[in-house]
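Supplementary notes for students who missed Thursday's class. We covered one full example, reproduced here. Read the sequence, then the structure, then the short commentary at the end.
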Amino acid sequence: MEYALVNFGEHEISYLKVDAMDKPVYTLIYRTEQVTEEGVLYVYLFTEIFETKEAAQVKAEELNNT
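Structure (token representation):
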């Protein structure tokens, strides 16, 4: 397999299979929040890439039900 260097973010180094360069992907961006006993709020941002729209939808539904 051959991989190509791609830029998915300002500070991330990512590689993608060359034969997958022209295939669509679906990105799900979501955040979670956590409040500690001291009242400190932590916000976590996540990005996940899926090969199909259906897979991204399943993950989104899982997150909405938790």
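Commentary. The CA atoms of residues 33 and 43 lie 5 Å apart. Residues 53-64 form the longest helix (12 residues). If anything here is unclear, bring it to office hours.
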